[in-house]
Amino acid sequence: MDFFNGLTTDSSNSRCEKLQAPSYLNLALSILLLLGILISYLPQHYRIISRGTSEGISPFFILLGTTSSTSAFANILVLPASRADVACCKLVSTFECAAGLLGIAQLGVQWFSFCIILFLFLVFFPRAPTLPPDEQKEYTWRTAVTVAILCLLHGLVVIIVSVALIIARPHHLGAWANTLGITATILAAIQYFPQIWMTWHLKHVGSLSIPMMLIQTPGSFVWAGSLAARLGPTGWSTWGMFVVTGCLQGTLLGMGIFFEAKARKQRENTEGEGVNTIETDDEGGPVVEDGLTENTPLLNGSRKPSSQPEYRD
């Protein structure tokens, strides 16, 4: 089996020559993006762990985000330009090889970081529904498990199809890469709508991290530009996704900042009037006291106050 059989000699030589003359400006930008992607997800990981709940995060946001990042990572792995870069590693220096594979590493880090969010979402999923009582549609533990299973099944299907094409139909990998890229773009485009709706309905960000969005929103456009410079117009299915997500995440960020500013203003007004109100945290969510609220996750299921509703499967 040869993963690179679908490449022509001319295109491979062209890619290798390009790797041997890297743009140090683009290289520095790519390294900063790689570190930025990793750092940008850390506030979200910390946010869920520190609050002890994934309350306020839409299950559909997690589902679409995980499947989108999986498709995007698989897209760049099977893209002809990426396969040519990997093939060139046999001919160029280690430094030139590493520089040429930074685009793949960036999407790999993003996929891994979002998988951690999926894991934390499942572990810290609250026992009680996260939506207001007047909302008929309630998200339960079964919803969270279903999301995790669907993400796993999607990843397995992508791996099986990719491996099958590599073995039997390597010349179809370009079309498969575009299919994955289009799928990732569509999923990313609709990924933020459930979260935008949920945040608007709750009127606070809950466990959604504003610092993460502050880093990722401008970073999406910078990342798109970096990938466009590396892959060219033929890589539109890869970098186009980040233009779409940047716009939608910016909308969610603006909404989160608005609700946070409104919540702080209300706290300042009520504190000035000496009125006792429910305390909220630094991003508009309710403060957890003694580790127990109406949204206490299953991780703390061994301590359930009598005032809490019974766990619903």
From TrEMBL:
Polar residues biased stretches: 293-313
Lipid bilayer topology: Multi-pass membrane protein
Cellular compartment(s): Membrane
Recorded GO CC terms: membrane
Ranges where the record places region Disordered: 268-313
Keywords: Membrane, Transmembrane, Transmembrane helix
Bilayer-spanning residue ranges: 24-44, 56-78, 98-125, 145-167, 173-193, 205-224, 236-259
Name this protein carries in UniProt: PQ loop repeat protein
